[in-house]
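REQUEST
  id: r-88c1
  op: predict_structure
  target: 5'-nucleotidase SurE
  payload:
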Amino acid sequence: MRILITNDDGINAPGLQVLQEIATTLAGPRGEVWIVAPAFEQSGVAHCISYAHPTMVAQLDDRRYATEGSPADCVLAAVCDIMTDAPPDLVLSGVNRGNNSGENAMYSGTIGGAMEAALQGLPAIALSQYLGPETSDLADPFEAARRHGAAVVRRLLDHGDWTSDADFRLFYNINFPPVPAASVRGVRVAAQGRRQGTKFRVVPYTAPNGRRFMWAAGGAQNAPARAGTDVAVNLDGFVSVTPMRADLTCHDSLAEMGSLFDDDISCQERAAGNP
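RESPONSE
  id: r-88c1
  status: 200
  body:
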């Protein structure tokens, strides 16, 4: 198996090393693991691409590249330039330092990398390690992802829904819970949730020269979410697996809204003298 890995924490991030171990296990002795990752941290860039300026790509070693762009840029660089002789069989993005459950998914560069891979028609999975009080004193805060990651991904590869005939191909978001590896209670397929009573915000700051800046800050990561969603199962000690698509349509509302503007359009046409 030929696997591409990327992340949003940067090419020297410890989570990328964990993902390389997972990918190497999955690829097997005859497989290949390619790394194309941001030169610097790109957390919070979501599915951003460097559309308005060029992106430098540097080869650091055999099958190891760094770009000055986002995770989505890294996937584009791999598919359209670095690996054009043979595309990857699988794209893995992560392992993110911190969870990408709940509302975090909307901001995540880790998920952005997997999403771009899916848009390119490739099987893709994002992986993130939830952090909390039970992981803060561990010698390896990625312990749960390191020990259980390959098995969860392999189960998805063997039994997941990898249909590609839809308008937007499925990809998967995996979050490992904020507990030691031995305390992981299992795996749950869960919908994306949202933490209640908390949200992203900015913290203003005035520099010594009088100029105004701001820091973006997340909300409490242990805030409750609806039962059965990714946040809830993660906080209960389970790995969450969430199927996703790059389709932001609210399909539940389409039928109800179908005739919402029919009368207005007819009135406008009659006013313009059209029959």
